[in-house]
Amino acid sequence: MSKLGVGIAAKRVCGRGFHNSVRLASRQPLVLNGIEYATDNYTNVPASIASRVHPHPQLPYLENQPLALLRGEIERVLGARYMPIRAPSPVVSTRLNFDELGFPEDHPGRQPSDTYFVNKNTCLRTHTSAHQIGAFRSGNLRWLLTADVFRRDEIDSSHYPVFHQMEGASVWNHEELVPGGSVEQECVAMEQKLANVPMEIQDQVSVEDAGGWQPKHEANNRQGAELSMRHLKATLNTLVYELFQPRWALESQSDEPLKVRWIPAFFPFTSPSFEVEVWFRGKWLEILGSGVVQQSILDQSGLADKMGWAFGLGLERIAMVLFSIPDIRLFWSQDKRFLGQFAKQSGRSLPLMTFKPYSKHPPCYKDVSFWLPPNFHENDLFETVRDCAGDLVEDVECIDSFVHLKTQKASRCYRVNYRSMDRNLENEQINTLHNAVLDRLRREFSLEIR
Ligand code: DAH
């Protein structure tokens, strides 16, 4: 999948030169949700991640959870025509997560450095698109599915190995996709509303740049594909407006309108494909990926005679900017000082809720420098830190890298920032934690720590 902003921002340069690695596997079965799974040399799910695997996504369904409020708001804006679906367990086959969606064998998203593998053919879903075909197959033609998704990645205030996405889709029979038909009528209604609100829509993407029409579109229903794309754009522009306009109106110091832009993208399961960005607090914020559903997906869903669109967005990313939540770890906090701020009775409209940080405790950093062994990926380091220190780790950053002139050995130095969201940490406690991290790095990856 793209390293799409809906979940994950571009990786830091420091990580690029590493090989991908497979963690040493213990050949014991892995137990997830009380079910035993066979393991192999792909297995790389640590205990801290295994304990986050539930039969259904949790946070977006908890009371007073900002992710739940946002999910509710998106469902409200898109309306009752979209069937809300709560995803099943995140343990899925790689067929579902990758193959059926058209990911090539060598796609980077399939690497054990990026994905949690239960075993070679089973992983923790990396995106909600894993359930596109399933949702269509159960007879839903318009739906909104919410799920927790898992990715191995860097550690900082906006990255966490578990986060939440919503996937939406709408498909129609070809007879509905004709001029004057029900789809066009819906487009006109949405477009008329959008024409009368203060929002600038930048959308000069040519369909060719966005992947082009699919062969079937060209052959027998180009008009239907164009209407699907028009409906997608009107729907998502409406969603962006409803989510962001109240905040924008409050924060922007001028009468500049809210701005949204459409840019060409590539996804193996849509064509044409787009990303949507919103101008917010001085930069373009990437919020979702979308496109016209590939015919092969519809064929596998038993909907060969239909056509339509799909999108996927990241809930944390939107909630963090809308509610001013400064650190992604806060979503997992049970602290009343966090959840209490999102209690319904506070009377504000949802997009206007603002999180007020409670006391910020001092950070404490420790460095780790080592000679790079072959086949080591920096995600292995991040994972080890996460697994030892849990939510006490705020940030891990590469602060130095060089190659020794004589020995040609490569060196890296990473700074690990420890900070608790809700209490002061003792230096001694951090030393113990950090030593545990170093021990495991030595043991599991034969790191030569300097
Ligand atoms: N699954 C994609 C990701 O996480 C996002 C996405 C893109 C979903 C395009 C879609 C879509 O449904 O049509 O990177």
From TrEMBL:
Q: Where, by residue number, does the polypeptide cross the bilayer?
A: none
Domain spans labelled Aminoacyl-transfer RNA synthetases class-II family profile: 75-351
Q: Which CDD domains match?
A: PheRS_alpha_core
Major place of residence = mitochondrion
Keywords in alphabetical order: Aminoacyl-tRNA synthetase, ATP-binding, Ligase, Mitochondrion, Nucleotide-binding, Protein biosynthesis, Transit peptide
**InterPro entries attached to this UniProt entry:** aa-tRNA-synth_II (IPR006195), aa-tRNA-synth_II/BPL/LPL (IPR045864), Fdx_antiC-bd (IPR005121), Fdx_antiC-bd_sf (IPR036690), Phe-tRNA-synth_IIc_mito (IPR004530), Phenylalanyl-tRNA_Synthase (IPR002319)
Q: Name one GO molecular function term.
A: ATP binding
The entry's localization annotation reads:
Mitochondrion matrix
EC number(s) recorded for this UniProt protein? 6.1.1.20
**Which family does the UniProt entry place this protein in?**
Belongs to the class-II aminoacyl-tRNA synthetase family.
Residue stretches making up the FDX-ACB domain: 359-450
Q: Which domain of life is it from?
A: Eukaryota
GO biological process assignments = phenylalanyl-tRNA aminoacylation
Q: What is this protein called?
A: Phenylalanine--tRNA ligase, mitochondrial
Question: What reaction does this catalyse?
Answer: tRNA(Phe) + L-phenylalanine + ATP = L-phenylalanyl-tRNA(Phe) + AMP + diphosphate + H(+)
The organism named in the record is: Malassezia psittaci
What function does the entry list?
Is responsible for the charging of tRNA(Phe) with phenylalanine in mitochondrial translation.
